[in-house]
Specification:
Length: 375
């Protein structure tokens, strides 16, 4: 592992890109420390008040807590912890994990996104996987989520699309919100919340809890003022819509939102191991698929070869091999004649390598396919 240190001051601007995984952690020093597998994969450049870093592999950074981050591209996953300056992220090829961060603006995340302890607002354009977040001081605005959304004490605002379910416990009375989900929508609001509700349910079920007993509406569409009314909350669900004031603990288990333990100081080895493991697993899956396909082809060709065997009237094959002590050399079986095809020969060899037949039986099959015993 190679370590490089850059003096920066307490509030540097850092522009970072990585061809693999990137982990950024804040610390109370006026320097940036970069950890990489080897020094030759890291490029560093100072431009006025900005430090630019590019890694051709995994990169681990320790930065001043008030750093401002400009993450242009991370091919793998991105983790940022304890960085309270402004964070701007353009694209993440893997997952995004945010722990105790300042305000965040993010473009695209191909994988899942998880955050906790955000001290500022979060604005994310597109998430390919699921979104899970908790304990955000500022509001959350997210445009498109391919999977499910789970939020605990996070104020969801503006317009959001989710391919799966939306489950969110709002810490305060909702602001203007339009949510569209392929599955169900469940919102937990304070008992004294004030807003106007417009709910559309593809499952033709809207449940509204304003007191002790929830009210159910089976029309698939419901409009009402909750409390004294206020901001418009429009909910469109392919499934059912629920507006509740209690009972969130079963759907939003608090332990699910607890961040992972802080990584050790030597993160790089685990990052590299994870990357190798992903590559190995991908290659194993591809090899298994090719092997299965080859096996199916071999079985079909073997069946065809065995049908060819039915054309021969085979004598007792043991008569054609020298007996022990007969003086005949335990010689190599005769060379197969040209009648056997390469495909048939490969089938026999495959069966031999898989121990489905013995070496003696393999030679007998090859001779039979050559028509040796037809003379």
């Amino acid at each position: 592992m190679a370590v490089k240190t850059f003096p920066t001051g307490s509030t540097p601007i850092l522009e970072v890109a990585a061809d693999a995984n990137l982990m950024v952690s804040g610390w109370y020093q006026d320097t940036v420390e970069a950890q990489v597998r080897s020094e030759d994969i890291l490029t560093a450049e100072v431009q006025e008040d900005k430090l630019r870093l590019y890694a051709e592999g995994d990169l681990v950074l320790k930065v001043p807590t008030q750093s401002r981050l400009q993450i242009t591209l991370v091919e793998g996953s991105l983790t940022i912890a304890s960085v309270l300056g402004e964070i701007n992220i353009q694209s993440v090829g893997g997952h995004l994990n945010l722990q105790t961060t300042g305000p965040v603006i993010c473009g695209n995340v191909s994988g899942h996104c998880k955050f906790t302890g955000a001290t500022g607002g979060l604005r994310i354009s597109n998430i390919g996987g699921n979104l899970k977040g908790s304990s955000a001081v500022g509001p959350l605005s997210v445009s498109n989520v391919g999977g499910n959304i789970k939020l605990l004490d996070v104020l969801l605002v503006e317009k959001v699309h989710a391919g799966g379910n939306i489950k969110a416990k709002l810490p305060t009375s909702p602001n203007e919100l339009e949510a569209l989900a392929g599955g169900n929508i469940k919102l937990w609001v304070p008992v004294d919340a004030n807003f106007n509700l417009e709910a559309h349910s593809g499952g033709e079920k809207v449940v509204l809890q304003t007191g002790n007993e929830p009210q159910r509406y089976a029309t698939g569409r419901h409009r009402t003022a909750v409390g004294a009314g206020g901001p418009l909350v429009r909910l469109h669900a392919g499934g059912n819509v629920y507006i509740l004031t209690s009972g969130w603990e079963e759907d939003l288990v608090a332990e699910d939102f607890v961040p992972a333990e802080e990584p050790s100081h030597d993160w790089t080895s685990s990052l590299i191991n994870d990357r190798i493991e992903r590559r190995v697993q991908a290659k194993l899956r591809a090899a298994e698929a090719r092997a299965n396909a080859a096996g199916r082809r071999a079985e079909a060709k073997m069946e065809n070869a065995m049908r060819k065997l039915d054309r021969f009237d085979l004598p007792n094959l043991e008569d054609f091999w020298p007996k022990a002590g007969s003086g005949a050399a335990a010689s190599t079986p005769p060379e197969p004649r040209s009648k056997v095809s390469d495909e048939e020969r490969m089938i026999v060899l495959t069966m031999l390598s898989e121990k489905k037949i013995t070496a003696e039986e393999a030679n007998q099959l090859l001779d039979a396919l050559n028509g040796k015993f037809g003379n």
